[in-house]
Specification:
The complex is a heterodimer of chains A (292) and B (258).
Chain A (H helix, E strand, L loop, with lengths): L15 E4 L5 H6 L7 E4 L8 H12 L2 E4 L13 H14 L3 E5 L2 E4 L2 E7 L5 H18 L4 E3 L14 H12 L2 E5 H11 L3 H7 L5 E7 L2 E4 L5 E4 L8 H14 L4 E4 L7 H26 L1
Parallel strand pairs in A: 1-2, 1-12, 2-3, 3-4, 4-7, 7-8, 8-9, 9-12
Antiparallel strand pairs in A: 5-6, 10-11
Helix pairs in contact in A: 4-5, 7-8, 8-9
Chain B lengths: L3 H12 L5 H10 L6 H19 L1 H7 L1 H14 L14 H6 L10 H16 L8 H4 L2 H4 L5 E4 L4 E5 L3 H10 L2 H5 L8 E8 L2 E7 L1 H11 L4 H8 L4 H10 L3 E5 L7
Antiparallel strand pairs in B: 1-5, 2-3, 3-4
Helix pairs in contact in B: 1-2, 3-5, 4-5, 4-7, 4-10, 7-10, 12-13
The chains are: A alpha/beta (292), B mainly alpha (258).
């Protein structure tokens, strides 16, 4: 692959990229894999030293997406402005092609709870999230993407279906949606939703990125099972099928392979990215055939 | 219908083992499956325990994985992170270990943890440009006054009555022979920790050199640091610090006339 320096205003092409984690730094710098882009967790590059230097080196070869996991857009008590400033500083240094966060919360009373916790789907939560997306976009002076969550329980007082909540955030703030297909699959199985209907309900014009990852199935003591979004295995067959449905609806979209637990060699991620590229290729062919 | 703030406060209490009857009742009412909060608690605990493992690898090897996980669980409940940037999470872990009775027999453990805290700080400290030779040209004139120096953010100093640097190296290298050969009754150590290109270095200093560095990097005016060091070698030590890139700036608020 030709490693031309990427300009900061180059958009990410509608191809597959991989989530870059620390165990891959060396391999990726020694033999840059043929993938369209790399995505990292913003919070892992807020200090100086080796990690940041590695990311800067990666950035010279690939468009980079900064994916935040700790801003807590759904916190009732407001955003941690210091954290938002740290995100801005990483962005100024890396000049990412995309920046994203989650529809979730993780900070309460000044304590970071280190997980993406579920929000009640209420008008109050929608107002809070929209206010914080506005704040994030005005601080960063750019459009961001927000990712749909994976959840294991629901709030009885929720009044808005999750897909409508996502759509409303995008409509009110002008942000885009990072559509996590595995999360839709996991939540749909856990709550008895129709995953295809979820995908079909999302507005195609604001889908800026897709996430794919592995999940596990936990058998419950009282019978039944629960899908756990642990990013610790290959993408499941059912998720690939749902991804193909999403491509049908949204068209070719930049797609990320995420892997955060039991992280395998980078080749395994690249093979998963190849598979996503093949499905994107099929969709493009199909569209050409229809157009012809 | 509970407010968002009420829901989040109750869930925080549940995740941090501070749940009270009011919070528990609210969650039981609000959630379809309040028992599944344990899944979120587990994910959170695993993430934070792994952060502590990364920051305190030698401590973990000294006490074993299970003991470490149990200590970490208590620590996380007592001192959860105050921000989502976790590179420095667990800064209070050495002091926690000092008061942690099950680990009391490992006298040197808190100091090994302090060394690992300094190593972790050095690894993740912000980048900063070392004081350049051109800037140093001004030094001779103002050095007579109360010039003070700003250390590189990665520089740390610590002392221990145990040879914690030797313990740390032997433990991380898995060198049981070296570990067994360490004499805990030997003299104390005076250590400088810093990030150099691509790695973190831990260097033993002599006590006077260390005391000078301690005063210098705490921002004392140079004459006071020199007096504190009480050694003819101190100007050479200062030159070595600057040459090694351990100084990133200087200030001279009240320059005395020479």
């Amino acid at each position: 692959m030709a490693l031309a320096t990427i300009r900061c205003d180059d958009p990410i092409p509608a191809k597959a990229g991989i989530g870059l984690r620390f165990p891959h730094h060396e391999a990726v710098l020694e033999g840059p894999p043929d993938v369209a882009f790399m995505e990292v967790h913003t919070e892992n590059y807020m200090g100086g030293g080796t990690p940041l230097r590695c990311l800067e080196a990666v950035r010279r070869n690939y468009p980079v997406s900064l994916h935040g996991v700790g801003l807590s857009l759904g916190s009732a008590e407001g955003l941690d402005q210091a954290h938002l400033d740290r995100i801005r500083q990483v962005a100024e240094r890396i000049e990412p092609a995309l920046m994203s966060e989650h529809i979730a919360w993780s900070v309460s009373n000044g304590t970071y709870l280190a997980d993406l916790l579920p929000l009640p789907m209420t008008e109050e939560a929608l107002d809070v999230v929209c206010r914080h997306v506005d704040q994030m976009q005005s601080t960063l002076r750019r459009k961001i993407l927000v990712e749909n969550p994976s959840t294991y329980m629901q709030f009885r007082h929720s009044t808005i279906p999750e897909w409508e909540f996502m759509t409303a955030v995008a409509a009110r703030t002008g942000c885009d949606i990072l559509c996590d297909i595995n999360n839709i699959f996991v939540s749909a199985k856990n709550h008895g939703w129709d995953a295809s209907a979820y995908v079909a309900a999302l507005p195609r014009e604001v889908i800026g990125e897709i996430h794919l990852a592995g999940h596990s199935v936990r058998e419950l003591a009282g019978g039944g099972s629960l899908r756990i979004d642990d990013h610790g295995s290959c993408v499941a067959d059912g998720v690939w099928s749902l991804y193909a449905e999403a491509l049908r609806r949204f068209g070719p979209i930049p797609t990320l392979i995420e892997w955060d637990n039991n992280i395998p060699p980078v080749e395994v991620l690249v093979a998963q990215a190849r598979h996503a590229d093949a499905l994107i290729g099929k969709e493009i062919e199909l569209r050409h055939a229809v157009a012809a | 219908m509970p407010s968002l703030l009420e829901v989040q406060s109750a869930m925080r209490a549940q995740l941090l083992d501070e749940a009270n009857p009011v919070a528990a009742a609210l969650l039981a009412e609000a959630l379809t499956r309040a028992d599944r909060l344990s899944i979120y608690r587990n994910t959170s605990r695993i993430a934070l325990t792994n952060t502590l493992r990364l920051n305190y690898p030698a401590v973990q090897r000294l006490v074993g994985e299970d003991f470490f996980a149990a200590a970490a669980d208590i620590f996380i409940t007592k001192e959860p992170p105050r921000m989502a940037w976790l590179d420095f999470y667990g800064a209070a872990f050495p002091e926690f270990l000092e008061g942690f009775k099950p680990a009391a027999s490992l006298l040197y453990l808190p100091d090994v943890a302090r060394l690992e805290r300094a190593v972790s700080r050095a690894l993740h400290a912000a980048d900063a440009k070392a004081l350049a030779p051109a800037e140093l040209a001004e030094l001779p004139q103002i050095a007579q006054g109360s010039v003070s120096f700003v250390p590189h953010p990665s520089v740390g100093l610590l002392s221990s009555k145990y040879p914690v640097d030797a313990i740390w190296r032997a433990v991380l290298a898995g060198d049981d022979a070296a570990l067994a050969a360490i004499d805990l009754d030997s003299d104390g150590v005076w250590l400088l920790v810093e990030r150099t290109v691509g790695t973190v270095e831990v260097t033993r200093l002599n006590e006077r050199c260390w005391r000078f560095a301690e005063a210098l990097f705490a921002g004392w005016p140079l004459p006071d640091a020199l007096e504190h060091a009480d050694s003819d070698e101190a100007p050479a030590w200062l030159a070595a610090h600057i040459a090694a890139g351990r100084v990133v700036g200087f200030a001279s608020s009240k320059v005395r006339k020479s």
